[in-house]
Specification:
Helix 1 crosses helix 2 and helix 2 crosses helix 3. 48% of the residues lie in helices and 16% in strands. It is elongated and about 60 Å long. Strands 1-2 form a two-stranded antiparallel sheet. It has a single domain, classed as Winged helix-like DNA-binding domain superfamily/Winged helix DNA-binding domain (Arc Repressor Mutant, subunit A, Orthogonal Bundle). It has 100 residues and is of the alpha+beta class. The N and C termini lie far apart (63 Å). A hairpin with a 5-residue loop joins strand 1 and strand 2.
Length: 100
């Protein structure tokens, strides 16, 4: 019955491992193993990614169907440099330092 719930959840909208585990009542590891096996057989595909607080593609979103997997987005060298320099500027900002 849990396997049927898993299939039903995959058909409707992109969903993560954790959401599948909560919806089906299966353990996270069991869901991951099922999805990995289905992905290997090209029954499910990666529809996209959830981004974390640093804007990195973190969690895979799975969906039923034989389509090409979504690619992960990458920052260009210029974007990485801008983010790094703004972080360093914030660290060196004298207004942010505590008075000793």
């Amino acid at each position: 019955m849990s396997y049927a719930k898993l299939m039903a959840e995959l058909v409707h909208e992109p969903i993560t491992y954790r959401e599948l585990a909560e919806a089906t009542g299966l353990h996270y590891t069991t869901v991951r193993e099922y999805i990995t096996a289905l992905h290997k057989e090209k029954v499910v595909h990666i529809a996209g990614y959830n981004k974390d607080k640093r804007l990195r593609d973190n969690e895979r979103l799975w969906l039923w169907g034989h389509k090409k997997d979504a690619t992960r987005s990458k920052f260009t060298a210029a974007e990485r440099q801008i983010r790094y320099r703004s972080k360093i500027a914030a660290i060196n900002d004298p207004r942010l330092r505590f008075a000793a």
